[in-house]
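Holo prediction. Input below; ligand is zinc ion.
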Amino acid sequence: MVSMMFSFEVNPTHTDHLTPPALLAGYGPVDAETARRLAANAPGWDRVMTDPYTGAVLGVDRYRKNKDLERHLRARDERCRCPGCIRLARGTDVDHTVDAARGGPTEHTNLAHLCRRHHTLKHETAWRVRQLPGGILEWTGPTGRTYHDRPPGVVTFVPDETTAAALNETAPF
Ligand SMILES: [Zn+2]
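Structure of the complex:
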């Protein structure tokens, strides 16, 4: 199990060049490329999200790689699952709807893609999210009003990594 702490920017326009992108437990700061390589090769990792200013822990979840589950979720979600958000699922976070630290399972009924902005919203504000049958996410705002986000619900074919790499190759002419 690799233990790393990533810096977590609440404001996407904020760039703090003094803060290393990741801290590797027992080693120290590592650059973003090293962090990505370690995370990609690790069989699983615990993610601890902290407030960048106070250092307070905002949330903890456990992430274990499961290629089939990842592909299923990408096909189901297609995008960030906050109502109205159009950020594509690829490149966003896979969030445990109920934190793993609170017993939330790592399975499709408790996982959903959230972009960094809405991942922060879920963990740092009064908004609450629960997952209903059929992959429906129910967001409850601070006033108690609820919003339902449904998966796109169309048949989608997600290429495996070999096919995706081939699709990204440039033509040899
Ligand atoms: Zn979003």
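The radius of gyration is 17 Å. That is the main takeaway for now.
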